[in-house]
Design brief:
142 residues; alpha+beta; Archease, Possible Chaperone, Chain: A, domain 1
């Protein structure tokens, strides 16, 4: 089962993303973040950005994946609607991720402006394997 849902949080946005694999859970996490920003069903996959990030554990890898996507949104005014994590690898001291994100420049005439995401946080961040599913939880600062 893949997907995401918004959990209750007082001031920020608390998200739980689920996938059959850790890669799918990371993809759903990215989709959820952009669903906070805009209606992703209106975003066409016209531009592809390759994403390569690393981290010292799965938490920092999730943080860096989302942070890189948010950076591209802020820097290039891109919104994304499709994500593919091709690989997540772990060696002795480092985790690495290679993926892609598809989207287009934000266009006020076609894209709803929802909520500005200021930052990804480590607050309440979890990476869990539960049965056949991988679950990631994190909070967005809005």
């Amino acid at each position: 089962m893949s997907g995401f849902r918004f959990l209750e949080h007082i001031a920020d946005v608390y998200i739980e993303a689920t996938g059959k694999t850790l890669k799918e859970a990371f993809e759903q996490a990215a989709l959820a973040m952009f669903e906070v920003i805009t209606d992703t069903s209106k975003v066409e996959p016209k531009v592809c950005k390759e994403i390569r990030v690393n981290g010292f554990d799965e938490f920092s890898l999730l943080y860096n994946w989302l942070e890189e996507l948010l950076f591209l949104h802020d820097l290039e005014s891109l919104v994304f609607s499709k994500f593919k994590v091709h690989e997540i690898n772990r060696n002795h001291e480092e985790w690495t991720l290679r993926g892609e994100a598809w989207g287009e420049p934000f266009d006020e005439s076609r894209h709803e402006k929802r909520t500005e995401v200021k930052a990804i946080t480590y607050s309440r961040m979890e990476v869990i394997k539960k049965g056949d599913n991988h679950i990631v939880r994190f909070v967005l600062d809005i």
